[in-house]
């Protein structure tokens, strides 16, 4: 009992993350983005976490939200399982490599990497909205996946390095390259992100890289937001969700690059 009271005393200052997590998860799981693209900047700038802690806490948070959303998409029968499981298997080795690299690479370099990555995601999203080329396919032959089988692996490395990459590479691959129906592409992306998240979170727990005083609120919040995501996806135009996400990540990514480029240059003096 005393341990619980002590934990609550240290964690209660992070209670504001509960409603934040609900909103982030509802938008993320409704649009196909990974929540880490928003959670990591919040953890770094608002809660002053280290990058490994931010990645670990972001991933365990995403895991709850994505798992919750997976249940919603299973009920809607929107998931392309034949595409999801091969992509999970291709992503896992990349995540393991990325998590190891995140332990040894300078934090300023990781922050610039994250910033450039999310700015690129925002730019890609804007281009896709301008072109407005949406597919309507349902289903994919395994043979069609071979030429781009390296994409989930690279996305996994990026996800391990920054908590961003798996969803942000899988979703464009399904929507833009394979021309899968956008709602089915989002649902399938959520499944891949969720299953890969179980592996990544197991490693982060083992390495002690999760801030549980924060995660207790974000995990609870995204469980609720994850159930709202499929509903948001069904009633809100995907383009609206993409604009909201893109503007936020472009601004935060640009700030992260701007703040840390001088630190990287200082390493060479």
Automatic annotation (TrEMBL):
Belongs to the 4-toluene sulfonate uptake permease (TSUP) (TC 2.A.102) family. This is Probable membrane transporter protein. Its main location: membrane. The chain crosses the membrane at residues 16-47, 81-105, 112-130, 150-174, 186-206, 212-232, 239-258. Coiled coil: none annotated. InterPro entries: TM_pro_TauE-like (IPR002781), TSUP/Inactive_protease-like (IPR051598). Keywords: Cell membrane, Membrane, Transmembrane, Transmembrane helix. It is found in: Cell membrane; Membrane. It is a multi-pass membrane protein. GO terms for cellular component: plasma membrane.
């Amino acid at each position: 009992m005393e341990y619980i009271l002590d934990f609550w005393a240290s964690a209660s200052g992070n209670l504001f993350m509960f409603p934040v997590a609900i909103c982030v998860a509802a938008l993320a799981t409704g649009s196909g983005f990974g929540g880490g693209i928003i959670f990591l900047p919040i953890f770094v700038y608002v809660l002053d976490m280290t990058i490994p802690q931010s990645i670990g806490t972001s991933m365990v948070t995403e895991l709850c939200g994505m798992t919750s959303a997976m249940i919603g998409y299973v009920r809607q029968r929107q998931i392309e399982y034949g595409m999801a499981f091969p992509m999970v298997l291709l992503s896992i080795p990349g995540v393991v490599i990325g998590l190891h690299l995140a332990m040894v690479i300078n934090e300023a370099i990781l922050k610039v990497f994250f910033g450039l990555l999310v700015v690129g995601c925002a730019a890609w999203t804007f281009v896709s909205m301008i072109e407005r080329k949406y597919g309507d396919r349902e289903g994919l032959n395994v043979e069609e996946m071979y030429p781009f089988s390296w994409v989930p692996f690279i996305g996994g490395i990026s996800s391990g390095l920054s908590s961003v990459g798996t969803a942000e590479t899988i979703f464009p691959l399904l929507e833009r390259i394979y021309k899968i129906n956008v709602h089915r592409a989002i649902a399938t992306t959520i499944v891949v992100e969720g299953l890969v998240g179980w592996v990544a979170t197991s490693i982060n727990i083992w390495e002690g890289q999760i801030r549980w005083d924060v995660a207790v609120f974000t995990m609870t919040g995204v469980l609720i937001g994850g159930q709202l995501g499929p509903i948001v996806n069904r009633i809100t135009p995907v383009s609206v969700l993409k604009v909201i996400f893109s503007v936020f990540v472009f601004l935060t990514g640009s700030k992260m690059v701007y703040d840390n480029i001088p630190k990287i240059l200082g390493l060479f003096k």
